[in-house]
Design goal:
By secondary structure, this protein is α+β, with helices and mostly antiparallel strands. It contains eleven helices and 14 strands. It folds into four domains: about 1-45; about 60-110, Arc Repressor Mutant, subunit A, CATH 1.10.10; about 140-290, Ribonuclease H-like superfamily/Ribonuclease H (Nucleotidyltransferase, domain 5), CATH 3.30.420.10; about 310-370, no CATH class. Strand 9 and strand 10 form a beta hairpin.
């Protein structure tokens, strides 16, 4: 700083400017720059200055910045890509700010909290077989972890979504988690949207039973009776239904974390926003409602009996027993009231089917039932009778 000032003072009266520059070991260009700064700003111009440009050609205007901040404040958990898509739809024909520019705006305004990078570790995943490629191919269902609302009442909504379109079919506060309440909710969904090809859930009640054959509960047995396939994740492995768990995180951030009553009306408003206003990267920034379509398979109520073609049939008693040659063989209480199909085998046993599910084999000599060797929900179809 002192040398710059000394050089500038000498430069005002010297006749050989280049010789003065060589004396101080600087180029003539630098010398003229120091001299000009001294003439314009005095001693203050001798301090080092930032090389950062004061502006650039693609800098966002104040109006655009305010619009982006307003969108972020309206949706505090949405990222730059979703904010960009909302801005594009709200300002058609205007230049679209880039994703990186939106990130800089949000960071400079203190609207983004930086998180520590997540360490991704390789894990094995159970391939349940089916991954939805079109709407209504797979529905996913689960209960959101409960919380207390402002009235100190427990809120544990049932959530149902379409895997392909990300369309949230239901977020419903139920009086309890029993089979009757959940079935009534699904009946309304079936009447409104039709039937899916498969439903994926965890292994908890009322979706599955840990003691019943193939994990069939009263609820899932009704799904099977309607021709719906069952998909199951591994016990204690929520990542097998990870997309649905991600939905629950959004619900926690945008509803549970707010000081609100968590009423059914508020859950419906959140679902409406999620389906009709929130763009999704996996959908090419489309809204779920723009992708989802109702199922072509209509719901006409539960069938009185299942059709097994030429197979013998038996009705399961209220205790879950199968009557056979004057005796009774226990199968499952979840199948009470339903009819099962029986097909003879070459070894003398009989295969027992419930709709398309092979439950196991009945041994007529000992009047015993042997469950399928694999605890799988994949059914082997009879070649001729179904």
């Amino acid at each position: 700083m002192n040398q710059k000032t000394e050089f500038a003072l000498k430069a005002l009266g010297t006749l050989n400017f280049r010789a003065l520059c060589r004396e101080y070991g600087i180029s003539a260009k630098t010398g003229y720059k120091w001299k000009e700064r001294f003439l314009q700003s005095g001693l203050g111009g001798m301090a080092d200055q930032s090389r950062r440009p004061h502006s650039h050609a693609s800098q966002l205007s104040e109006q655009v910045t305010c619009a982006l901040v307003a969108l972020r404040e309206r949706h505090p958990t949405w990222g730059a890509r979703k904010i960009q898509e909302l801005y594009r739809r709200a300002h058609p024909g205007e230049p679209l700010p880039s994703e990186s520019s939106i990130k800089r705006v949000l960071e400079s305004c203190g609207l983004v909290q930086k998180r520590r990078p997540r360490v991704v570790r390789s894990t094995s995943h159970l391939n349940t077989g089916r991954r939805a490629q079109k709407p209504n191919e797979v529905w996913t269902v689960d209960f959101k972890g409960w919380w207390y609302d402002v009235d100190s009442k427990r809120c544990e909504p049932l959530t149902v979504r379409d895997e392909c379109s990300r369309f949230v079919l239901e977020t419903r506060r139920l009086p309890n988690a029993c089979t009757h309440s959940v079935w009534e909710c699904f009946e309304r969904l079936f009447e409104r949207y039709g039937l899916p090809q498969a439903i994926r859930s965890d292994n908890g009640a009322p979706f599955a039973s840990s003691t019943a054959v193939l994990g069939l509960s009263q609820l899932s047995s009704r799904w099977v009776a309607l021709g719906i396939d069952l998909e199951r994740g591994r016990p204690s492995c929520p990542q097998d239904n990870g997309a649905h768990e991600r939905l629950h995180r959004d619900l926690a951030d945008e509803v549970q974390s707010r000081a609100r009553g968590s009423t059914q009306e508020e859950l419906d408003m959140w679902r409406e926003e999620f389906n009709h206003q929130r763009p999704h990267e996996a959908l090419g920034m489309k809204m779920p409602a723009e992708v989802y379509q109702r199922s072509t398979v209509r719901y006409n109520g539960l069938p009185d009996a299942l059709d097994y073609g030429t197979m013998e049939t038996r009705i399961i008693s209220r205790c879950g027993n199968l009557r056979w040659q004057g005796g009774q063989i226990f199968l499952s209480g979840s199948l009470a009231g339903w009819n099962v199909g029986l097909q003879p085998r070459h070894d003398g046993d009989w295969d027992v089917y419930f709709s398309r599910l092979l439950l196991g084999q009945v041994d007529p000599t000992t009047l015993s039932f042997k469950r399928g060797a694999s605890a799988s929900f994949e059914a082997d179809k009879p070649q001729e009778n179904l």
